[in-house]
Design goal:
CATH architecture: 5-stranded Propeller
Low-confidence stretches: none
CATH class: Alpha Beta
Structural class: alpha/beta
Helix content: 10-25%
CATH topology: L-arginine/glycine Amidinotransferase, Chain A
CATH superfamily: L-arginine/glycine Amidinotransferase, Chain A
Number of helices: 6
Bound molecules: citrulline
Order of helices and strands: EHEEEHEEEHEHEEEEEHEHE
Number of domains: 1
Length: about 260
């Protein structure tokens, strides 16, 4: 069965980390309502939604993707690049320890799950303000025994690699070439975002569907005309905290 681990929106969300966005007022109740819709949508797509414990004192806890990289064989607990986010990992580790053997990234490494795109046995890992070389190397060592290869990717202009590109299936990437050069993903087929929608490169695969924000109608059209099954939902309030749809869940098979 497909599991989706989520974490509630914290009442402190407005104090979130921000890197590329200007701070603007966040309506936490509206963000929580959008998050609840997101959880319902994941459930309707066949995932069993498991909520990690609320962490009201951790503003960015809802963006649980950054705390772990869950593969079929192991889960890697990250060491988030933002110091304010490091306390998020403990509860996630406890929860994931019931599903996978756990490994952890240790100092001086930093790694955010939002920088890791998995396509089959290849992990594309963004070198970013959040993920450093040591983080990439530790992930490489931890996953190589299971046949994964790690490809480091340079990008600029956005927070995480997954703000610039995400997998639509194991051979197709949704991609904003303004933020990550196309040759970083050589050999892969890419579908580019509409250049008026720079934030449109983040889509979440859930079973045979793509969960996608309704704020990017032009890129949505490109996804639909590819014949992909796309389920949209409003996501603009969580986006003010620099979050995107992949950030709010960890999705994996309970028994791969
Ligand atoms: C942060 O800056 O860490 C949060 N405000 C947003 C994290 C978004 N996570 C993601 O893209 N994976």
């Amino acid at each position: 069965m497909l599991i989706a681990v989520t974490r509630p929106v914290s009442p402190t969300l407005a104090q979130c980390e921000l890197t590329h966005l200007a701070r603007q007022p966040i309506d936490v109740a509206r963000a929580a309502a959008q998050h609840a819709d997101y959880e319902r949508l994941l459930g309707s797509l066949g995932a069993k939604v498991i909520q990690a414990p609320a962490a009201p004192e951790l503003p960015d806890a809802v963006f649980i993707e950054d705390t772990a990289v869950v593969l079929d064989e192991i889960a890697v607990i990250t060491r988030p690049g933002a110091a304010s986010r490091r306390a998020e990992t403990a509860a996630v580790a406890t929860l994931l320890s019931t599903c996978r053997p756990l490994h952890s990234v240790g100092a001086p490494a930093t790694l955010d799950g939002g920088d890791v795109i998995r396509l089959g046995r290849t992990l594309y890992v963004g070198r970013s303000g959040r993920t450093n070389n040591a983080g990439i190397e530790q992930l490489r060592k931890l996953t190589a025994p299971f046949g994964y290869s790690v490809v480091a990717v340079e990008f600029a202009g956005c927070l995480h690699l997954k703000s610039a590109a995400t997998a639509l299936d194991d051979g197709l990437l949704l991609h904003n070439p303004a933020w990550a050069a196309a040759d970083s993903f050589s050999g892969l087929e890419t579908l580019t975002v509409d250049d008026r929608e720079p934030y449109a490169g983040n889509a979440l695969r859930v079973a045979d569907a793509i969960v996608y924000p309704s704020e990017f109608p032009r890129t949505l059209e490109r996804l639909a005309s590819r014949g992909l099954r796309v389920e949209t939902l409003p996501y603009d309030e969580l986006a003010k905290a620099e979050g995107a749809v992949t950030c709010c869940s960890l999705i994996f098979e309970d028994k791969p």
